Amino acid sequence: EPGGRVYLAMELLQGDTLQQVLERHGRLPWRRAVGIAAQICRGLRAAHGCGIVHGDLQASSVVLTDVGEERDHVKLVGFGLGGGPFRRATGESFGPAPAGASDVAAVGAILYRMITGRAPSEGAGADGVDATPRSPLLAPARLLAAAPDVDCPPELEAVILQCLAPRPAGSFVGVEELLHALRNVLGGLSTTGASLASFAST
C-alpha cells in the first residue's frame, strides 16, 4: 500500500448465522441439517488441507447465505477464537488426537443441536457446545431421549453420537471420514437425487 496503510479485504456476507436460524425455528428437518453439516465438513476439509484447524466451531460461526436459488449456502467464520471441551473433545480433554479432531466433535454437536433443538449434554450452551473450560465431557443423550418426537433415522443418530465419542473410543478420524458417513446416510435413505444435492461437489 503506497500510503503505508495495511488493510484486510473480507467478503461481505448477507445471511443469518445458524444460531439465529435455530433460535427462530428450534430445530431443523434432518435432511436440511445433514446438507448444512456436509457443507461445514467440506469447508473444514479445505482448511485442514492448508493446516488450519477452526478450533471454535459452533452454530454462531456458520453463516447461511443464498446463492441464486440455492439456500443454506454455508460460510465458516471465526476461525481459531477459542475452544470449549466439545470443540477440543477429542484432543485436550482426552489426550492426543489427529489435527482437526476437535472440529469433528463440534460438527457432531452442531448436528445434534440442529436435529433435537438441544445441546448434546447437560450444561452445554445454546449453540450446542459445552463452554465450560476443561470440564469433563458428559455423554450426550441419545437423540430420541433428548427429543422423543424428533424425526431422525437411526443411521444418522449413530453418526452424530460417533462424532461426540471420545477418542480413542471411536470418533471419526477426520472430516473426510465424517463426510463419507453422511453421504452414506443420505444415499441409503434417499429415493431421489434431490436430497443428495449437498454432496454434489464432494
Description:
This protein has 202 residues and is mainly α. The chain has 6 helices and 3 strands, in the order E-H-H-E-E-H-H-H-H. It has helices at residues 18-25, 30-49, 101-116, 143-146, 154-163, 175-189, and strands at 15-17, 62-67, 70-76. Strands 1-2-3 form a 3-stranded antiparallel beta sheet. Helix 2 (30-49) runs antiparallel to helix 6, helix 3 (101-116) packs across helix 5 (154-163) and helix 5 runs antiparallel to helix 6. The radius of gyration is 17 Å and the shape is globular. The model is unreliable at 84-97, 122-137 and 191-196 (pLDDT under 50).
Key attributes of the depicted protein:
36% helix, 202 residues, 6 helices, mainly alpha
Task: Give a short overview.
This protein has 202 residues and is mainly alpha-helical. The protein has helices at residues 18-25, 30-49, 101-116, 143-146, 154-163, 175-189, and strands at 15-17, 62-67, 70-76.
Helix amount: 25-40%
The main sheet orders its strands as 1-2-3
Please give the count of helices.
6
Alpha-beta classification: mainly alpha
Radius of gyration: 17 Å
Average residue-wise pLDDT? 76
Task: Show unreliable segments.
Answer: 84-97, 122-137, 191-196
Amino-to-carboxy terminus distance: 38 Å
Number of strands: 3
DSSP strand content: 5-15%
N-to-C SSE series? EHHEEHHHH
Q: What global shape is seen?
A: globular
Largest sheet: number of strands, sense, barrel closure: 3 strands, antiparallel
